[in-house]
Amino acid sequence: MKCFLPIVHLVVRRYRPSDKDAVLTLFCDGILEHINPSFYNAISNPANVGVTLFLSVAGYMLGGGSTVWALLSAGAWVGLVYYCCRDLYSSFVRERLRTDMQDIPGCYLSHPDNCFWVAETEVNGRVEILGMVGVVAKKVVGGRDREMCGELFRMIVSSKCRRTGLGSRMTQTVIDFCKERGFSKVILETSSIQTSAVALYKKLGFTHILSHTKTYSPEWMAFLSRVTILKMEKAI
Hints:
Largest sheet: 7 strands, mixed
CATH architecture of the largest domain: 3-Layer(aba) Sandwich
Helix content: 40-55%
Number of domains: 2
Distance between the termini: 33 Å
Oligomer: single chain
């Protein structure tokens, strides 16, 4: 859903402890919304389509020409693919709620080179958080002595406020923060399903440097979900 609030009414500020409940809700909603797109992408993959058709035919033949067995066989496979896609994102949410998202001040605000921001606006007299993003300073692997970069984390824009420029604004906030601290680049990871996010990052000058399938789910689940993790970076 597109936001009809002018972007100038949105204020980007540092996280406050009182934001926790709203931020956690936004985080969970923003990650879990990728389950269905991930499933549609996976089940339409030619290999998965082939398996679905094969199981359907096999079920029909082994069931003595029963369409019920054909549907059950194909349905079991489709259900497994959906389960893999769901677990891929829900396991990520569980892990993050157990770690950094449980202690945002400790993980993102206890060091001057780290930060966490939210974007808020007033709707019908009530303040609502519509975006969030964090950054953590890291030493550049294989870089010069004391060369640092900033890793962008937890970029979420509410479905109520898409295509307004908020994603660009939040990302630029991270880039500007890293520039002020003399970092050499900004790095991030996103999933291949998040095509809008990938397009946004490329528009802002990020380049795709590598892909992997390491997630909090078993490797076979990541394989069946057909999701890859993209690592991107921008020199600053």
